Amino acid sequence: MLKKKKLFLLIAVLIILGIGTIGYWLFLAPPDNFPNKKAAINEIMDKFPEANIKDMQDIIYLDKKHVYIPFITKNDSYGLSFWQWQKHEWQFISIDTGATPRIWKIDPENPASHFIVWNFHPENNLHYLTFYLIKDRGYSINEGKHNYQPSVQMDIKAELEGKTSFGHTRIPLDWCEFMLSENKLMASINPDPLFSNFFPPAQYYFGWRSVAKDGYDDYPPFPKNTNGFGTGDSLIEQIRYIDKQELE
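-> structure tokens emitted (248 positions)
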């Protein structure tokens, strides 16, 4: 009987060690080096041949487990692909050939982990990009109480002259503080996620504008074919283009 108990304990220990080893290997082991560009192109084209990729421009690490790769398509569009280390492998999670900036919310709860990423056609000759965090002014009456919310407009500038067609920037600290306070306010208004549909979401959003070297400040003209191909993770969102009339 004693031998059976020892054997049972030994088997239990081995099972626990085995599960722990597999768990560490899948979730905690440090990432491997990213595969080469050719391997990345092959993986994307196997899943989404319509992406029509000709060349990967670079491999950029945002952190140890998140990579974006700018690329050029065979019809001369400039796009972005996004990769994440998970389950002990580099997994392709999103692609876009629409030539407009994206925001990658690596940790949705932590704005400091959010990155804005772009890849514009070089023929646009862009001098700089301006990114905006905007909250529209609002007015409401609740139980006879009047509530006015002023508008908010924050911006950062990314210089492009003399640089590559692609780039990224982390959300600045003052944006992070504002977003956290807004998210906290919305959570206090609506503490139960089951009833989230009955309350409006946080009223801030992201936007962008560009200025070319010759001063042209409307929507970049290249590529002239604006049809794009996109797919992927919900944490990677398109940033809307802001008309001058929308700015204060």
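Helices lie at 2-28, 37-47, 173-189.
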